[in-house]
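dumping this here before i forget
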Amino acid sequence: MLSVGLTGGIASGKSTVAGMFRELGAHVVDSDEITHELLEPGQAVHRAVVGEFGDRIVLPDGRIDRRVLGAIVFGDSARRDVLNGLVHPGVAERQEAFLRRVQIEHPDGVAIVDAALMIETGSYRRYDRVVVVSCPVAEQRRRLEARGLTEAGIDARIASQMPLSEKARYADYVIDNSGNLDETRLRVRDVWTELRGLAVSA
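structure:
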């Protein structure tokens, strides 16, 4: 099995690229989805986060209001570190379980872990190959604005992550997602061909 870390910046199109790899036959786990599951009511991580940040982040149905929580942590790096410390161990555990499962069930497969902060946390070192999805900052801003974020919110989110130009230095493959989807899909296919070859020969 070949393990691959897929990362990028906010609004770079990382999830879109992950979906393209999945269509081609990759086994993909989305770390954002893992985080959502861990933050569901009844989960230990949910209790820990609410205990740390208070009832102001809780919606009437008990779920965490991610917009409120985001406004807190994206404006305060110390609070963001606290949140990451509560959430990341559980995410890492689920990622490792996914990789073990793929290793057993698909020993010649390609397992892709989609995670935004693997360069920042150093977890990218766990993978055989690293793919970075990139686009210009102006395009990131345009996409975030289309999601309804304020200019201050956009600034805070982009500033909270390593610049894409720097992330690209850690990549075995860079996928430019600034053009149209057909162009992105062609690049994904090229990378996939190489990843499959490496998995089969491993």
